[in-house]
Please model this.
Amino acid sequence: MLNLDSTQKDAIGLNFVLKNLDCSSPYGMEKLKELKPYKSEDFNSLEECFDNMKKIKSFYESDKSTISKICDVLAHFKNIRGIIRKLENTSLNQVELFEIKNFLLIFEEFLPLFEQFNDKDWLKNINFSSMTNALDILDPNKKRIAPFSIEDSFSEKLFKVRQEKYKIELLLKKDQSLLLERSKIVAEEDTEETKIMAKLSQNLRNYIADFYANINNLGKLDFTIAKVILAAKYKATRPKISNNKLVLKNMQNPMVAEILKESGKKFTKTSLELNLGTTIITGANMGGKSVSLKTTVLNISLCLLGFFVFADEAEIPMFSDVCLVFDDMQDQKSGLSSFGAEITKLNDIVEKSKNEFLFIALDELARATNPQEGTAIVRAVSAYFSSKNCICLMSTHYDGVVQNGIKHYQVAGLLNNIENTNNISDYMDYSLIEVDTNTKPPRDALRICKLLNMDKDLLLLVEGGIE
Model:
């Protein structure tokens, strides 16, 4: 699922989003576990996915109660996929037939709700076929109650055997010599029940394709509803699939927003417009560059996975892959330092970029080496990817790395007219401003030193060093 490991998915907030996805049924959870990105050849399927989400979202906003009822019914389904697989080749036992019957009873309750919800058949490739005939096999008397047993009505012979068994059991109270006779009758009853279960299984086998199709569509519907409810919760929007242009207006990151909310703070939404080549975000440390970069990676990843994105507007290409290099890349297994692990990962990305259309996010590349070499590496890498068929977004606090032909965003930084404070973050403007190539980063580090009341003598030395 994308070229992101678990640590990276945690860092960008993707795992947070997926954990907040509340599927109602085991079939919806199956779809979540099978989740993989759409490729360029899957464009029509992705658009179909978004069309269904849009329609369900519109319905959900006007009639939450019906969606809630559907989710309630979905929650009662158990996973019978294994039983259906067994049914393909062998007979089911009584417990398994009970599970099948229970599934069919719930499905019979579900179908009218879905038809009410989908009365104009506007959902694409999410449809269901009636299974009343299959239910009638297990419930020929149409009692429509959950318990399943091998009833006398399934076989005239079984009816007669059980009648005989009943008579013998009455006589047993007076004559224990009839125990052997009863054992024979019980064995005959078991044999007949086994034949009946085999026959019921054979008759149900005709509906295996319907079982699989309905199970698959239950999963698709459940998973789609869960994505819609998540989108409604965080005010996500449908992205437009573009060719080579990436636009995210007022994007946010739910994980970071939740963390800030616990501290009584708000997430600052940011906007980016990227074209082929390299774009660089500059700004001081603690300036929000990494959050903006990771939020961009999150929303691109969600789009490619078939989710609405956390932005007011979005245009996202169908990248072949999403690659991220960020601050904590140390690989203890191979003994590589953070810088060494970065370069190893970068080598892999360079190779992939020769044949694939990538989104590449490089967060503070080469921060673990000395500033002179780090600056040279960032300049070289930005120049390299600016000539490739990719969109590369880099963040850095190094000066003088933005070259001609490379787009440049800068974090707005500290607000003006701030008096001494210990809560620097309260006075930071994390929004991104597009600036020209030669714009120097703001000297926020020195201002922070002053705001945090650095020792005067030490501060004089700092100022002298900067000048």
Q: What stands out?
A: The first strand starts at residue 240 and ends at 242.
